[in-house]
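assembly run, all chains below
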Amino acid sequence: MTMIFGVPLAVFMGQLTLGLVNGAFYALLSLGLAVIFGLLKIVNFAHGAQYMLGAFAALLGFRYLGINYWLALFLVPLVVGGFGMLMERFLLRRIAHLDHLYGLLLTFGLALIFEGTLVNFFGVSGARYATPEVLQGGLNLGFMFLPTYRAWVLVAALAMCLFTWFMIERTRLGAYLRAGTENSQLMQAFGVNVPLLITLTYGFGVALAAFAGVLAAPLYPVSPTMGSSLLIVVFAVVVIGGMGSILGAILTGLGMGVIEGLTKVYYPEASNTVIFLVMILVLMLRPAGLFGKEA
Amino acid sequence: MNTAEAYETNAATDSQTLEMLRVNDLHAFYGESHILHGVNFDVKRGELVTLLGRNGAGRSTTLKSIMNMVGRRTGSIVINGNETLRMKPHHIPRLGIGYCPEERGIFASLDVHENLLLPPTVRSGGMSLDEIYDMFPNLYERRKSQGTRLSGGEQQMLAMARILRTGARLLLLDEITEGLAPVIVQKLAEVLIQLKERGMTIVLVEQNFRFAAPLADRHFVMDHGQIVEEITAAQLPSRRDHLNTMLGV
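ok done. output:
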């Protein structure tokens, strides 16, 4: 059997794939956080809950309305994103003129309310969401077994990341977003409806989280607390990558997933903390993050 | 958003529309501090006027108040026959106003071309990209550069150029010559003359009196948040010494 640094190739590749898939989730979620932070200047603590809502909406939509996975992948981000826009319009906007810490507290409170409400109805144990039939099974690549659904998650998440990158870096709306992130007051003075831009941006960030939630539903148990544990890691990823660049957020997300996966192979005890160790290192050497702009 | 059209219909009936801008008893506040204390002035269509005064006299705040960029305002600001005091900030530019802030406001995350295309069109009849690049050939050469990599003079030209594309007919320009080399200041003077020939109405906040004097139809001198004096171009030669003392030049 082929060995890599004393580990069977199949095990190595298996963990690498797992790491990449986790990394794809980190990338999607940190991207949404970074986009929201850029324009609204608030740390969206509800991001994990919104990811969870995405997974729950897929689950309940299937259970009660018979909405299948593919339709959910399209509809759920729109519905949860729309819900996010209402949150922005009626809650976040009211405190936008205050210190940004209030935004953090408000979103944190909302996350607790969403989680608590769903725990009340569904408990914490988590439900299973069936993998769509065409994505069941796997491919034998010879040196490893690649589960089809994980490969799909990787492709779909990366495609969504690239779509986001394109929207922000190559379209007029994206130019508004980038410029608004720098100086929203001047954008108003050009006649851009900045409050609307803020609502749309928040909705888009939330929709990204919900999309990740639907992708995650067949992989992980769908439970009200699935988002909160993930979110802490995603915050670390955002700190490591820095707030400066979209591609930076994507690469950092994937990279951290891989580092975490490989740590599981070589030193499993540290796999839960390795990202935070990297974060500490990055904070000491490059406080603005790997891709962030030095203040 | 049809304020522009609404104005066109007003224009036929309203003889006041020779007036592009009328500011009446304008007070402005930043939080607790009272910055403008009853500013009064008017600008006629096609006129170029300056707001002169020492630093802190309230000239920049006057422009910002017109754009609804300060905390609180009272009084009246009529643009093109529309009272704008209660308008949302993003509706005001759509009356056909272009604003060039003192700090220029070039966006670092956009290249020159994107910066130029950024402000949405507010009215028809703006300059085309070709015309703008004709007027500012430097910008064409540097259109792929990041906005803030340009020299100070190029950034100033970019800040001017991007509001010419939008079809704005009233330009509010804040300290456009500040810190620039004489040759660039000369270029900006030529640009202003061309814009005036195109029928633009211009309010110029200026420290450089030598730059502003030959361009302007009227000068308003500000002090302590008020207009304290109005001087027409014709009166200027006899009032020059007096002005120099007032401005502390």
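The two ends of chain A are 51 Å apart (CA to CA).

The first strand of chain A starts at residue 3 and ends at 4.

not gonna interpret more than that til we talk
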